[in-house]
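Late entry, evening session. Most of the bench is empty. Finally got around to the prediction I had been postponing all week. Sequence below, unchanged from the version circulated by S.P.
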Amino acid sequence: MAQKNDAVELILSQWRRERPDLDVEIMGPIGRINRCAMLLEQRLDACFAEFGLCLWEFDVLAALRRSGAPYCLSPTALFSTLMVTSGTMTHRLKRLESKGWIVRLPNEQDARSMLVQLTDVGLALTNKVVAVHVDNEHQMLAPMAVEQLAALDQHLSTLLQVLEPTPASPK
């Protein structure tokens, strides 16, 4: 295996020197995943900023867009998909509504709740941004071979299955 030469390797070598009693190799994958996430987020943010969006705004708009016509979900479905609290979602929806990208509508199935729907402006913006976003992602990972990407995807899927909570089994 080739010698790793990245920022995380420097950290690991320092720990190996300072605490040779610890097996710090496990810090490698976790440190690299964290660093990759930070670097990817910076590049995603830069892409979205070109459209006056931030990452969380795109996430909400994209969740509505990929839900299919009429691009409408309950706030509960949105915050569950996006893994944020209901309070955070309420704040985010107010901001998106003030920008004219979403509207909140009465839920005909449940008079106590509202639904969130993309506006025509929000739909057009999301359609435009998602195309640029996909191109951006292709460019970011273009230096990797197709086989490397497939293996990385499989390994990350396995990691997600290890880390994500499993639904409670029925009693």
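Two things to note before I forget:
The chain has a mean pLDDT of 91.
DSSP finds seven helices and three strands in the chain.
Will write this up properly tomorrow.
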